[in-house]
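tool_call: predict_structure(chain=1)
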Amino acid sequence: MMGLAADGGLLIPETIPDVSSQMADWHKLSYSELAAKVMVPFVDDIPVSDLASLINQSYSTFDHARVSPLVRVANIHVLELFHGPTLAFKDIALQLLGNLFGHILSKTDSTLNILGATSGDTGSAAIAGVRSKPGVNIFIMFPAGRTSPIQELQMTTVLDQNVFSIAIDGSFDDCQMLMKTVFNDLEFKSSYDLGAVNSVNWARVLAQIVYYFSAWFQLQRPTEFDVTVPTGNFGNIFAGFIAKQMGLPIRRLVLATNSNDILARYFNSGIYQKGRVHFSESPAMDIQIASNFERFLFYHLGEDSAQVNRFMEDFHTTGLAGVPGCQGIMEQFEAGSVDDIDTLQSITRCYQDNGYLADPHTAVGIAQAERVIEPGVPMVCLATAHPAKFEAAVHKALPLIVPRHESLKNLHDLETRKFNLPASVDHLKAFISEHCSTL
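tool_result:
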């Protein structure tokens, strides 16, 4: 419920369970049943029957029986994670998180004010998960003019009284820094019962672990496989890292960034150096400070929190930090960046050669997967959003193609509501204070 820990740090499990001896018995399970098996070892404060019911409720809203179906595109297996209500992979975690919040609040007769930052998809998915839920307000910040028009409409057309869509004059990194700064004011956080839905929330990561297992079962349980993950905030690929630690036979986690390549540079050099945010055709990855990276650092640095603190202090002070000569876990990863030209060419090539239409984020992943795929080892690429959410980018790549989805066609005709704020902590706190009184 708290999102960030009380000292401003990120929560992780005390131990990561090894489930490798159990996995053979899971091959006939539905997605919801598999999710319960994967999550139960981490959960000791909700009865198993209640958790299973919440999971079933969460995935009943998806439009595909497998929830995350695997589709063959030439020699790559594309794991489609966009079959939820807002057509993005964030639904897989946030439909569950919304139901978990509702369950806990009803049991404890308490309230929650959710504060989140989004580069596009988290916001609409989080809003869909908690809209009109009793005892909850949700404040979602997004960078003004830097999401796709459809992504903004998916947020701002929700007029429920507990939903506040906030356009921040700045980048996603500005939104994320505002969120972390407010959460680090422990008195304010406690006074206003703040909670998080971003991937700083461990439950988000936990839900995302499941679809890595689902991919393996759909591949018919190979002895090893590779996974390419388009990522900006490191949460999606960190879930794969945890799945691997649990015993899933992932050989390599291939990290794919756009021109905002801070993560790719780190995994290729050991140097974590902030740069200028480049606004791209894959806007959800226009990030220079990846919030989940701290979780990975903990394992990379031998589970030594003092070293993590020193690394992050160096980074926040100077914009530069490194781990010279420290490999180990790094060898489980491969990384590369894909610029806008290659992204659009990937969309074009995928469609013309295979009849498969990819959104620009998925296209980043496919382009990187094609560079590193090896014969004899299945390659899975995560598809993070439906192409209809990024009509402009698809049109640039394929001028005669207009991606459509039934759930999006009427958004332009709906009334909208949003609140414009500068990238100011004081302005944000004042806004939260003013609107929390509606609970």
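agent: The longest helix spans residues 90-108. Proceeding to next step.
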